[in-house]
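ugh ok so i messed up the first submission bc i forgot one of the chains. this is the corrected input, ALL of the components this time, i swear. 428 residues overall. if the numbers dont match what u have on ur side tell me asap before i send this to the collaborators (the ones from the other lab, u know who)
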Amino acid sequence: MAKIKLKRAQPHVDMTPMVDLFSLLLTFFMLTASFRPQEAKVIDSPSSVSEKATPDKDVISVLVSNDDKVFFSMDNGKDTSAHFRNQLITKINDIYKLSLNEKDIKTFGQGSSFGMPMNKLKDFLREEDAGRKEAMQTGIPMDTVGTQYPELAIWVAYARELNPLAEVAINGDAEANYKTVKKVMDVMQNAGVNRFNLVTNLQKEEAKLEDIK
Amino acid sequence: MAEIIENTGSGKKEGGRRVPKKMGAHIDMTPMVDLMCLLITFFMLTTAFSKPKVMEITMPEKDNTEDPKDAPKVDAQRTYSILLTADDRVFWYHHGEVPEGQTFPTTINKTDFSKDGLRKILLKKNEKVFTEIFELKEKVKKGELVLEEDSLNSQIKRIKKSDKKAPIILIKADEKTKYKSIVNVVDEMAICNIANYAIVDIAPEEVALIEKAPK
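and heres the new structure output, hopefully the right one now
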């Protein structure tokens, strides 16, 4: 009996549509991705019903982490050529004699939030190791020791002087103590800020008429 | 795999002329697909879809005058205090029920952050304004009333201002309060359409009241 030899077909999958789809998705994600600078600490924001979007530019933001450390950040403004961050650090450097060089100022200008006493800022900016850098973020001192104002007040005051349009955003962790947030608000109020933007996550919730009964 | 199909000439002699055998151009796309998968995964994971939102609050201006006569006078009948402390515990009292001649009540009421807790209390106090705004919003939703977003907001603002009996809420938090609780309470104000509220400092007498209150 003759054996029927089945011709083994080479499985040949046409990948063209897949590749097409992939290109499309890739393009989409690349275009929509908005990179946020690495913040000093991961903040788990509380949720609220507010639908107002966070302002992108002209913001002075203060981070309060769950271990009650305070970090400060400022953006370069709508017109990025203004380089508010560079101006800010140059000013602070001149007044408080931090002995930073050009390179340090540039590093600061490109950074995001930071939190350490002013005298540690130089070491922080020159540190290359990411792990040690993180360990140096001990929070901005909030107490009035030695100097007349707490350091946060100094940063806020100069930041507001440079960019009077800047709004203040407080990005507090849900588990942070209100005491610390209150201290931050007090410092801000002394600097003449009475309106705050509290950063929250959107969580829709609505009360109905029946809820009254 | 994507490939470009071409006439693979057999290479036989045509009229004595030798046609060179055309090779099927076959590009191996596997590395490209691999890379694309990787990039897509990366972008998908790093893209932040939900942009964080902000909640606006305006704090009462700090007055450095210690003179109690300068303190703004508010109608006690309209005023309620919400006291916050650790572990999401919430208390409240009505200033109108404070005995004559005293600033603080003897007991405070306990409530919680649930729908039937604080929300219900606030809605009851603010019933008139809430009902009006709710009905207005319903009308807009159903299309009975066509309003621009801006004019809707200004109407809501007007309703909020119109009620001269609407509650005034004072939010007071002690030292042990978590930030979350404050945000929760301010959020309730937004949900219940309460126009007048402020975060103010807690008095030592009120801290004592919280401590006395049942756990």
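quick check: Chain A has a mean pLDDT of 81. that seems consistent at least. Chain A has seven helices and six strands.
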